[in-house]
Amino acid sequence: MGSKAKEGIGRMSSDIEIARAATTEHINKIAAKIGIPEEAVLNYGPNKAKVSMDFISGLKDKPRGKLVLVTAMTPTPAGEGKTTTTVGLGDGLNAIGKKTIVALREPSLGPCFGMKGGAAGGGYAQVVPMEDINLHFTGDFHAIGAAHNLLTAMLDNHIYWGNELGIDVRRVTWKRVIDMNDRALRQITAALGGPGNGYPREAGFDITVASEVMAILCLALDMDDLERRLGNIVVGYTRDKVAITAAQLNAHGAMAVLLKDALMPNLVQTLENNPAFVHGGPFANIAHGCNTVLATDTALRLGDYVVTEAGFGADLGAEKFFDIKCRKAGLEPSAAVIVATVRALKMHGGVAKDDLGNENVDAVKAGLANLGRHIRNVKKFGVPVVVGVNNFTSDTPAEFEAVKAYCADLGVKAVLCTHWAEGSKGTEELAREVVALVEGGTASFKPLYESAQPLWNKIKTIATEIYDAADITADKAVRDQLKAFEDAGYGDFPICMAKTQYSFSTDASLKGAPSDHIVAIREVRLSAGAEFIVVVTGDIMTMPGLPKVPAANSIKLEDGLVVGLF
Asked: What gap in Å lies between CA 271 and CA 422, rounded to an integer?
């Protein structure tokens, strides 16, 4: 997202300068465009708002519009611009007369102050107010963190006051969370300092976007469903390995109270004054990577088209979008856009980042194997595909023609997109191709695996069908844990893979389209409230660390304005 602002077309303003110079409309006017009355708009200032649950509940009988997923090839440090393309396509569809709403995730503070930057788009394809969206926004993440940590506090408090439920402190599985990259908190010892502070035990922190509470908020259909799911969270086990839930601790009601405002979708606008819901924010490499079901469904009831995105490459975000979100919410996607860049293709073809500005058609052709696998994978779900090539000025016509010809051989059209520099004008061709796919009626969506399959088989299906692995492997303890989950009634749950985003394999250094590798399962975790099984592979961490030179070093206030945010 941010990389384009630094290496884009000529000397353009930075993302934050463009966003700050935008002419925005009052959020009530944006709401009115899609039929939301003023009394249903809960304002957070003039340019952002939440939409009331009473209004949303009244939409249940309205037909849904067409759902379009924007996903991507395997990401590289060169940047692919998936969120930028999502916003640009939404504006492009509106420009050709389709009533379209964009549905995005909220950014985490971890990447904003770490290395990746913000997640509000870039150039002339952004959602605004950019600073607010990338920072505290409407406080949703703070509410999620507070609800999660309330449960942890009540768990430790229960143990301190006699432990009536017989929780084995060695088998507590529920951690704490913070919305920051802080490697020092991955493993800690809690309750030191004597009897007055409780019973010492090993503990740790995850980043808020990996919290099961985040996943629950993103999958809940309404307030009752939210509270039910919160109550089902498993926090640990007794000595006899009997699961203990949040409902048994009487924590779910108070947690729901903390989340009652966070559950309402957030409404903002694009730079071209088109509506956008920005709500929920699980990462795709350690969580399920999709915005809330509630925001997506609300948008589908209000618009003719909804353009949404799923995190990282299609092997992670799109697979989870299809197998978890669409399966659980009964969504039927009509088309998918796979975002690619010539620069990323060259990196997958073996070119170093410093040499990406030089024409290298052979490297593009070598890297196309990565894009090709993503195309074939998305088609396995019965969803028609178009490739959006996010343009950089260093790209050459010969390089794009190589992409176009390769995609044509796979029966897919590749469209050059210049939305970063030109806004909706740069995505009108992509928008028309999306409409052609949707109106062609060829979508026949189906998940990759059946819910009734054994958990081990589901994991193997994902690994072999999506990652092109030869097999999966795990210690006996992991296999036994999966069997225990099935015996406890969780066998129908879908799988949420925690895997590096930088490779089809579990080795981040393997670029392109590696095959016949082995996916080693390190750990499996039950998310009984979110209703999926998290499978941890390789060296993936659910609490990231900051890089040597974090983005936070350059973020500051000058004359009351935020600078350094990208």
From this structure: 11
Residue type, 33: K
381 is catalytic: no
From 48, 98, 116, 346, active-site residue: 116
Q: What domain range is 489 assigned to?
A: 455-537
Return the half-sphere exposure (C-beta side, CA atoms, 13 A cut-off) of residue 36: 32
User: Which residue among the candidates 4, 50, 82, 98 is catalytic per the annotation?
Assistant: 82
Within 10 angstroms of residue 508's Cβ, the number of other Cβ atoms is 14
Residue 545 domain-assigned (yes or no)? no
> Rounded to the nearest 10 degrees, what angle do helices 140-160 and 212-219 cross at?
130
| Torsion over CA: 311, 317, 321, 324 (sign) | negative
Q: How far apart are CA 150 and CA 202, in angstroms?
A: 18
Q: Which of 205, 321, 322, 420 is catalytic?
A: 420
Res 117: pLDDT: 66
How would DSSP label each residue in 75-115? P-TT---HHHHHHHHHHHHHHTT--EEEEEPPPPHHHHHSS
Dump pLDDT digits (tens) for 115-167.
766 778 889 999 999 989 999 999 999 999 999 999 999 999 999 999 999 99
* C-alpha dist (Å) from residue 460 to 315, 451, 473: 14, 14, 9
State the pLDDT at residue 314.
97
Note the pLDDT of residue 17. Answer: 85
DSSP class of 557: E
Whether 304 is covered by a domain: the verdict is yes
Query: Residue 166, Cβ neighbours under 10 Å: how many?
Result: 12
Co-location of 244 and 345 in the same domain: no
Q: Active-site residue among 74, 76, 83, 84?
A: 84
User: Tell me, what DSSP letter sits at residue 184?
Assistant: G
In what helix (H) or strand (E) does residue 5 lie, and over which residues does it extend? helix 3-7
Based on the residue annotation, tell me whether 116 is a catalytic residue of this protein: yes
- Please, what sign has the CA dihedral across residues 256, 259, 264, 265? negative
- What pTM does this model have? 0.94
**C-alpha gyration radius of the chain:** 23
Catalytic site residue 105? Answer: yes
Query: Looking at 55, 141, 277, 312, which residue is catalytic?
Result: 312
Q: Is 82 a catalytic residue?
A: yes
Domain contains 449: no
Choosing from 143, 284, 318, 340, which is the catalytic residue?
A: 284
255 & 308 share domain = no
- Is 530 catalytic? The answer is no
Give pLDDT < 70 ranges for the chain: 1-12, 78, 116-117
Q: What is the CATH number of the domain that holds 481?
A: 3.10.410.10
**Choosing from 48, 50, 66, 105, which is the catalytic residue?**
105
Give me the sign of the Cα torsion angle 148, 149, 151, 152: positive
Active site residue 301: no
10 Å Cβ neighbour count for 25? 14
Residue 168 shares a structural domain with residue 79: no
The DSSP result for 297-346, as a single string, is HHHHHH-SEEEEEBSSSIIIIIHHIIIIIIHHHT--EEEEEEEE-HHHHH
